[in-house]
């Protein structure tokens, strides 16, 4: 399966995000990581699971990297 079901802390609420990054990341690699979540999307069901956002990532030559921020930044900070 290519999907990971993640629980993310947006600072003001917890959300579930389903992301197609399973072939690049193990769940334990993302625990505690401060990732950038696109949170203003309409919730959708992916393979029967509710996804309430999207993890921002970039790829090049078959390598995918999840966008993350400095650990000093508070959960829920806005990207500008």
UniProtKB/TrEMBL annotation:
<dbReference type="GO" id="GO:0016874">
    <property type="term" value="F:ligase activity"/>
</dbReference>
<dbReference type="Pfam" id="PF01588">
    <property type="entry name" value="tRNA_bind"/>
</dbReference>
<dbReference type="InterPro" id="IPR002547">
    <property type="entry name" value="tRNA-bd_dom"/>
</dbReference>
<dbReference type="GO" id="GO:0000049">
    <property type="term" value="F:tRNA binding"/>
</dbReference>
<keyword id="KW-0436">Ligase</keyword>
<keyword id="KW-0820">tRNA-binding</keyword>
<dbReference type="InterPro" id="IPR051270">
    <property type="entry name" value="Tyrosine-tRNA_ligase_regulator"/>
</dbReference>
<keyword id="KW-0694">RNA-binding</keyword>
<protein>
    <submittedName>
        <fullName>Methionine--tRNA ligase</fullName>
    </submittedName>
</protein>
<dbReference type="InterPro" id="IPR012340">
    <property type="entry name" value="NA-bd_OB-fold"/>
</dbReference>
<feature type="domain" description="TRNA-binding">
    <location>
        <begin position="1"/>
        <end position="80"/>
    </location>
</feature>
